[in-house]
Design a protein that fits this description.
With 374 residues, the chain is an alpha+beta fold. It has helices at 5-39, 41-44, 48-55, 67-105, 119-175, 182-212, 226-236, 238-243, 263-280, 311-316, 338-348, and strands spanning 222-225, 247-251, 258-261, 286-294, 297-304, 352-357, 362-369. α6 (182-212) runs parallel beside α11. The relative contact order is 0.07. Its main location: membrane. Residues 94-140 form the HAMP domain.
């Protein structure tokens, strides 16, 4: 810490004052002890120290004491002055720290307490810096959460408003009798019904997302064979894959991979990944699902050889309501919540999911612990 000129001057004055007080204490002690020695010579005369200082040098003034005794007195005086100035210096340090804290408390959270501090004060300053950094991070995280909530409301409003407007429009035509035949009524009702189903999909996905985002959501864990589960899902998508001339391949060096997890939630994850590969893997002919075991975790990779995704799409692909397509068209019947839900389910199981895409494969890689902590 760098002291101001005023603080240095105060320390200098305090050093001189302390030295003067010590000198006066020495003189007073010398005189008092001398009076006792003269009053009771039989009691103090046999003591070496008393004899050395008072009986031999009593006729001299204070500065006539022996060099050894003077050395001891100087050592004591220097120690007392150093302790006093050190204590005052610590007070100045605390005052500087308090001033810096007031400055930080006014909203200057990026400010750091200036100066180098040692000992316990240094530890306190380091702790303050950690606390301020943690507070800034928490505030930034809260800001992002608020921004995310605003985006969530905006996206939900957009995705619900579009089909809702169509429903109101077609039902309004029927309500006002603006139709020419029963077939036209049937057409309006059918369109409104399809739009209502789109809204239900969105609401269901939104409910599922908010549910799995809660860390307290219970898992209904059972023991199962992951390879058998994946193979069954591949069979379920076989007809859809054939209609799009896509082959689903399940590959694993293992015959069985027993796990303990919530199969209902994991089925949703893999359903989403496979359906996305079929829906968005443009120009692809193969969906390959690889299952392996590394130590105490299962590694599952769902990849397709379709058109590579842009880099920015891969970076944002797990965000809520994000779609790799530019428009938010309802033609693909997607809500943009599928991968966000998948990520939340995997994290709920204590695992991770990542995405990567190149000219050969677009791959979603999952790592899951084989057993859940109950």
């Amino acid at each position: 810490m760098k002291l101001t000129l005023r603080e240095r001057f105060r320390l200098l004055i305090e050093g001189f004052v302390t030295a003067g007080i010590i000198l006066l204490c020495y003189f007073a002690t010398y005189e008092i002890m001398g009076w006792f020695v003269e009053a009771f010579p039989s009691v103090f005369g046999n003591l070496w120290f008393i004899e050395e200082v008072f009986l031999q040098d009593r006729q001299q003034d204070l500065w006539g004491i022996t060099p050894f005794v003077l050395f001891l007195l100087v050592i004591v005086a220097v120690g007392a002055i150093y302790w006093r100035l050190k204590r005052r210096y610590r007070q100045y340090e605390l005052r500087h720290i308090i001033d810096e804290l007031h400055f930080i408390a006014q909203g200057n959270y990026t400010h750091k307490i200036r100066g180098k501090y040692s000992g316990d004060i240094g530890k306190v300053v380091d702790s303050i810096h950690v606390l301020v950094d943690s507070t800034v991070e928490a505030m930034e995280e809260e800001r992002k959460i608020e921004q995310s909530k605003d985006e969530l409301i905006t996206n939900v409003s957009h995705d619900i408003r579009t089909p809702l407007t169509s429903i109101i429009g077609y039902l309004g035509l029927i309500e006002e009798g603006r139709f020419r035949s029963t077939d036209e009524i049937q057409k309006y009702v059918h369109t409104a019904y399809q739009k209502a189903k789109q809204m239900k999909v969105l609401v269901d996905d939104l409910f599922e997302y908010t549910k799995v985002r809660q860390t307290t959501t219970p898992l209904q864990c059972v023991s199962f064979d992951m390879i058998q589960l994946i193979e069954q899902l591949a069979i379920d998508f076989e007809l859809e894959a054939q209609s799009k001339e896509v082959e689903i391949i399940v590959h694993s060096p293992l015959e069985r991979l027993m796990m303990i997890a919530d199969t209902e939630k994991l089925v949703r994850v893999f359903n989403n990944l496979i359906s996305n590969a079929l829906k968005y893997g443009k120009g692809g002919n193969i969906i390959k699902i690889e299952v392996d075991k590394v130590d105490s975790q299962a590694n599952i990779s769902v990849k397709n050889d379709g058109e590579a995704l842009p880099k920015e799409a891969v970076e944002q692909i797990f965000e809520r309501f994000y779609r790799a397509e530019i428009s938010r068209s309802q033609e693909t019947a997607g809500t943009g919540l599928g991968l966000a839900i998948a990520q939340s389910i995997i994290e709920l199981h204590g695992g991770t999911i990542t995405a990567k895409s190149d000219d050969d494969w677009t791959s979603f890689d999952i790592q899951l612990p084989l057993e859940q902590k109950m």
